[in-house]
Specification:
This is Transposase, IS4 family. By secondary structure, this protein is mainly alpha-helical. The protein has 3 helices and 2 strands. The chain folds into 2 domains: about 35 residues, no CATH class; about 60 residues. The protein is about 50% helix and about 10% strand.
Length: about 100
């Protein structure tokens, strides 16, 4: 277990259960290394591709809208990695 001090002087207790035969320090470093990228991608879909503004109150239309924004985001990431080159990978839509 790892104890992490919060800013309000309270403690947050986290536990990891795994079948990996790594040491605790290796496992925690691996878990912390995975954090962050999904939130950045979600922010890009919502703000760069208008995924946070749904067109109607109908679930089907909103689901289609979200699917199109995710598809556009994935296509943009693919184009930056495969066509535009390494210098464009971390650029947002407004820079392109």
């Amino acid at each position: 277990m790892k104890y992490k001090e919060d800013t309000n002087s309270r403690y947050k207790i986290l536990g990891y259960v795994t079948n990996m035969d790594w040491s605790g320090d290796e496992l925690i470093a691996w878990v912390y290394g995975r954090c962050g990228k999904s939130e950045q991608a979600h922010d890009a879909v919502k703000n760069d591709f208008a995924g946070g503004h749904f067109p109607s109150g109908d679930f089907g239309e909103n689901a289609a809208w979200w699917w199109i924004t995710v598809l556009a985001h994935n296509f943009n990431v693919l184009m930056k990695r495969m066509v535009l080159g390494h210098s464009w990978i971390n650029k947002r839509m407004k820079a392109i």
